[in-house]
Amino acid sequence: PILFRHGSEAILSEKNKPTMAIQHVTVIGAGTMGNGIAHVFAQKGFKVNLVDVQEKQLEKALQTIAKNLDRQVSKGSLTERYSYLTDYVV
Q: Which of 5, 40, 67, 85 shows its CA 20 to 30 Å from the CA of 26?
């Protein structure tokens, strides 16, 4: 069994799987790691908020994600180009 924390709740799970379904992820920081984390979660179907104090960094992160998606399509690891609806939080 694994113990997960959700706010003040502790959730016990079996076989390394949480007992609740996480659907929404917020990534704080749109730098190299942040945009990569946001990209992977979005690709896996999670609703993602990418937050940064600099709007310019958010724009750069979205460009990086778009470039990485295009590269995945050209390599054949994605069959179609995904579009993301984005909101900026500055």
A: 67
Tokens of 16: 């390394």
What's the mean pLDDT when you consider all of the chain? Answer: 76
**What is the per-residue burial (b if ≥16 Cβ within 10 Å, else e) of 29-50?**
bbeeebbebbbebbbeeeebeb
**Average pLDDT of span 5-34:** 71
The encoded tokens of residue 32 equal 């190299």
- Whole-number Å distance between alpha carbons of 62 and 68: 10
Sign for the pseudo-dihedral over CA of 82, 56, 25, 77: positive
In sequence order, which residues have a C-beta less than 8 Å from that of residue 80 and are 6 or more positions away?
Answer: 73
Helix axes 55-75, 32-43, angle to 10 degrees: 50
